[in-house]
Write a structure and sequence with these properties.
By secondary structure, this protein is an alpha/beta fold. Helices cover about 45% and strands about 15% of the residues. It has helices spanning about 30-45, 65-75, 90-105, 110-125, 130-135, 140-150, 155-160, 165-170, 180-190, 195-200, 210-215, 220-225, 245-260, 280-285, 300-315, 320-335, 340-345, 370-375, 395-415, 415-425, and strands spanning about 10-15, 20, 50-55, 60-65, 85-90, 205-210, 230, 235-240, 270, 290, 345-350, 355-365.
């Protein structure tokens, strides 16, 4: 191999049209977006570093600088780049060495050094667009780098020394308390702490703007009440720093939603702070359920409903069509009569998406007799407890219940049609139970605790 220190290379001005990408160049996969950004950089600042080439049969092959060559190809309307200065390899062996060495030896700038340079460029008056163009980066990347540049120097020093990761450093950007930041930094140096843990130490009570309470209340209302916010630029989310204010607003707005519903004729309306109401909660509250009186579509409405439903299934229905379909569905689902509302109420809660949800048509235990007498609620067929003491122990009763559960499960597995029959019976409203299928994620006891 040639002694590379003794090679004498010369720079030659070559028409761009005479250049091609050499097969020796190892960079075969590139990002089109990065090439476009590089072209903008070259157009603004010129070609800072020459490409390297080798004379091949079909012309000058580019062995080093494939990205620059591709970017220059986008600038051929500019006379400045129609002729390119090329560092020429004197022989094939040198060209091969350059092609592999330039890519193998290239070392990316350490994130800490890049962050500090971003900050220095900004202080010199460079705009985000200027920095992005100079680095061939996106403006979003620069904004994040500048957020990191505003961190206390010890945090960036820790990043440079490898005591914290880049994502750890990003976690520190949520804090505007330098004293606390430095205290937490000392606790996490070299510990491999998670980003989430660092954020919780910096702002233990902070709530994300994606929290259902925040979505329901709205950031504007929260800020109007004096609530403070921070931001996590790297997670692209807003942090709510006064959860007590948020909880107060959430509770008041939820109560207002319940009051609005009660004003529509329901006997009562209760706000529930949970994000979900299951059948078991309704049973624990000893509530009975009544159902809306189903509506009937006219012949024309039925035809429209079928046509719109078919279009919806084919995903060709427009917004107006969806609105028409929804209006017809409301009619079909029916509504609660004034008599039903006079004996029943609603539970109002906010789901995980921050949307108001309503469990309607619930009759309290104290109102059941009146509801039955009014013909609103059917008398339950379920045999309840009596005042007479059971002749068997509670433990035996539980074991017998487990055996019955196992028997029903075995029957359903052997004959799945039984499940369809049970479902149909439940839909008829004659079962006397509030739920036919009480699905649970945990194990359902079906084996007695006592050996028999």
């Amino acid at each position: 191999m040639n002694d590379q220190s003794q090679i004498t290379a010369h720079v030659q001005d070559v028409p761009f049209a005479d250049l091609h990408l050499s097969h020796l160049n190892p960079r075969s996969v590139v990002s089109e977006a990065s090439i476009l950004t590089l072209a903008e950089n070259i157009s603004a600042y010129g070609l800072i570093q020459n490409i390297a080439g080798f004379a091949e049969e079909e012309g000058i092959g580019v062995v080093v600088g494939g990205r620059r060559y591709r970017a220059l190809g986008l600038l051929q309307d500019d006379p400045r780049f129609q002729t390119v200065s090329v560092k020429m390899a004197p022989d094939l062996e040198t060209a091969q060495f350059w092609a592999t060495s330039e890519n193998a030896q290239r070392e990316a700038l350490h994130p800490a050094d890049e962050i500090r340079d971003f900050g220095a460029m900004e202080k010199r008056g460079a705009t985000v667009a200027d920095i992005a163009m100079a680095y061939g980066a996106t403006e979003a990347h620069v904004y994040r780098g500048l957020a990191l540049a505003n961190l206390p120097d010890p945090v960036i020093d820790a990043l440079r020394s490898g005591e914290i990761s880049l994502s750890n450093a990003a976690a520190f950007t949520i804090s505007d308390d330098e004293k606390l930041t430095l205290e937490i930094l000392e606790n996490v140096r070299g510990q491999g702490e998670s980003d989430h843990r660092i954020k919780k130490m910096l702002k233990p009570d902070a709530v994300k703007d994606s929290d259902r309470r925040a979505v329901f209340v709205g950031l504007d209302a929260y800020k109007a009440a004096g609530g403070r916010t921070g931001s996590d630029l790297f997670a692209e989310e807003v942090l709510i720093d006064d959860p007590a204010i948020l909880d107060d607003l959430f509770g008041k707005k939820l109560e207002e939603a319940a009051a609005t519903l009660q004003a529509k004729g329901w006997k009562w309306a209760e706000a529930i702070v949970d994000s979900y109401i299951g059948w078991y909660q309704i049973e624990e509250m000893k509530l009975s359920r009544i159902y809306a009186e189903g509506g009937t579509l006219s012949d024309d409405q039925s035809e429209d409903y079928d046509a719109l439903s078919e279009q919806a299934e084919q995903e060709v229905l427009n917004d107006e069509g969806y609105a028409q379909l929804a209006a017809l569905q409301v009619i079909l689902d029916g509504s609660f009569s004034d008599d039903q509302k006079a004996h029943a109420g609603v539970l109002v809660y906010i789901d995980t998406h921050g949307v108001v949800q309503v469990e309607a048509g619930l009759v309290k235990g104290t109102d059941k007799k009146a509801a039955i007498d009014a013909g609103v609620l059917e008398k339950s067929n379920h045999v309840g407890s009596t005042a007479t003491k059971s002749p068997i122990s509670q433990k035996l009763a539980m074991d017998l219940g487990r055996i019955a559960t196992g028997a029903r499960q075995d029957a359903a597995l052997r004959d799945p049609d039984l499940l369809l029959a049970l479902f149909a019976f439940q839909l008829s409203g004659k079962s006397g139970y509030t739920s036919a299928f009480g699905l649970r994620k945990d194990d359902v006891p079906n084996v007695p605790s006592t050996e028999m």
